[in-house]
Predict the structure.
Amino acid sequence: MPILLTRPQAQSERFAADLERARPGVAEIMISPLMAPDLVLRDVPAGPFSGVIFSSETGVEAALPFRASLPDLAYCVGDRTAAAAAAAGFRPVPAEGDAESMIRLIRGEAPAGRLIHLHGEDTRGDVAQRLTAAGIETVSVIAYRQVPQAMSAAAEVLLKGQGGVIVPLFSPRTASLFCAAYRAIGGKAPLGVVAMSKAVDANVDLPSVRMRKVALNPDAPSMRRAVVALIDAGPPG
């Protein structure tokens, strides 16, 4: 039963490697990114800032040319982003994988100075606004955008077939893009969808979905376990 990964190329390749390590030969894995990052950060506002907030690894990548202008302290949405921040020379403090836990973390830390949030054009949680309203001044800066990509020819063939396909979906926007692409190509394959959160799952409205599962936590290890569990449950159909 094949697995179709639609995250940007680098993240899909890493998730595929994680799946293979967890369960060698678990399934045929196909990668067809529905988004690709475009780094649009050209400057950062004048400081000083006491800390920077990263909602993703892509935000860290966008910040690299401006590392000298940014503080060492980095509040990160989860462990993956924290690892990327550490590799870039920041001092990361990871949250539990989503905007809500990151807001709780920062409010608990109660930093004295201003913060700067480097994020994507499409973002959730109103992090900067909510922190500022809570008395922690936070400047919001768009650092990148995710540009929609066409589905690959191989993925179209897979989704037009009669066999079941497992589709892990990591964001509400990716879920919407996948559903639109599936309809546009006339998809027929029965689907097993693994969503990273309830918000992601809510954006999946295809009648072809025969099985669906929401990860226990909004992180890659939970997604991996959920995918394996869906495989073990048998093909959707």
Remarks:
- Residues 93 and 142 are 21 Å apart (CA to CA).
- The radius of gyration is 19 Å.
- Residues 9-22 form the longest helix (14 residues).
- The first strand starts at residue 3 and ends at 5.
